[in-house]
Amino acid sequence: MIGCDCETCQSTDPRDQRLRPSIYIETPRASLLVDAGPDLRVQALRHRIRRIDAILFTHGHADHILGLDDVRRFNYMHGRPMACFGDERTIADVRQVFAYAFDAKTQAGGGLPRIATFVIGGAFCVGGEEVVPVPLYHGKRPILGFRLGRFAYLTDCNRIPDEAWPLLEDLDVVVIDALRKTPHPTHFTLEEAIAAGQRIGAARTLFTHMCHDLPHAATTATLPPGIELAYDGLVVEA
Predict the structure, then answer these.
(1) Measured between alpha carbons, how far is 238 from 220 in angstroms, rounded to an integer?
(2) What pLDDT is recorded for position 47?
């Protein structure tokens, strides 16, 4: 947190050094990025990400889309536009924020990202991998989580609607939003995230999008078995 001297912000534990939330998914047939936040360039360099076949957007808030201009490098390496998937509102946000990338009058010489947008209308395939959108609520805004096989990612949510629960059965790993201990209008609290994770019943539950109210080691020590905080650089097989 900018300007903060709390224990978490001053921690030497690398698991407390948190960039904006995003995940990179590698399967035998596709390499997918979920969200492209302002830290995308740093994250790609740090974790040596060299291929992205498509980007799945959960929603259009700044901390989830503002790194999109950095797909220029992937355009160059892969020789094609970047396929970007999201719900109708999110795609509209992307096209508004990055209007220059979709304007035929924009001069390309300065390095223009090539982006191909697709509105999600249900389950779809990328590189032969089925992606199942999971409806969620981020405050009053409907957003998306995603399920691939026996893995699901549910960030930035404070409510899982009735129609989503059947999509979250028989999971090996689920990642859930858990912002802090005190109530928040658009994010699960730690207690709410624990309850959601236990209802889903995945073999392993990981929490993401924590603020500095939740130091990694101390918080993890209080969690029920099978539930833990995620951290930057964590690799999970599912």
Answers:
(1) 21
(2) 96
